[in-house]
């Protein structure tokens, strides 16, 4: 079955339990184990520009806001 409307497809498959199970089995997004999407900021949830050194797990934006409280200093 090919359709552009996801809800319409699930409605059609509701009467066909075998096909519904097969659809769910092959169309569920897989869990990611590595890559950019796995690492998220603890504070805001962003995935890009992630700092995980020292166990921080913050994005660069949140790190700049929290750095003085964490004891980091900017040296010039």
Q: Can you walk me through this structure?
A:
With 76 residues, the chain is mainly α. The chain has 2 domains: 1-30, no CATH class; 32-71, 30s Ribosomal Protein S14, Chain N. The chain is 39% helix and 5% strand. The protein has 3 helices and 2 strands. The protein has helices spanning 6-13, 17-27, 60-70, and strands at 50-51, 58-59. Strands 1-2 form a two-stranded antiparallel ribbon. The chain is rod-shaped.
Describe the SSE topology.
Blueprint lengths: L5 H8 L3 H11 L22 E2 L6 E2 H11 L6
Antiparallel strand pairs: 1-2
Concise account of the structure shown:
The protein has about 80 residues and is mainly alpha-helical.
The CATH class of the largest domain is: Few Secondary Structures
Average pLDDT: 85
Q: Roughly what percent helix? A: 25-40%
Q: Tell me which CATH architecture of the largest domain applies here.
A: Irregular
Shape: rod-shaped
Tally of helical runs? 3
Overall structural domain count: 2
Number of strands: 2
For this structure, the CATH topology of the largest domain is: 30s Ribosomal Protein S14, Chain N
Taking pLDDT < 50 over at least 5 consecutive residues as the criterion, the unreliable ranges are: none
Q: Which homologous superfamily in CATH is the superfamily of the largest domain?
A: Ribosomal Protein S14/S29
* First-residue to last-residue Cα separation: 62 Å
Biggest sheet strand order reads 1-2
Relative strand content: 5-15%
Order of SSEs: HHEEH
Q: How large, in whole angstroms, is the Cα Rg?
A: 21 Å
- How does the helix and strand content classify structurally? mainly alpha
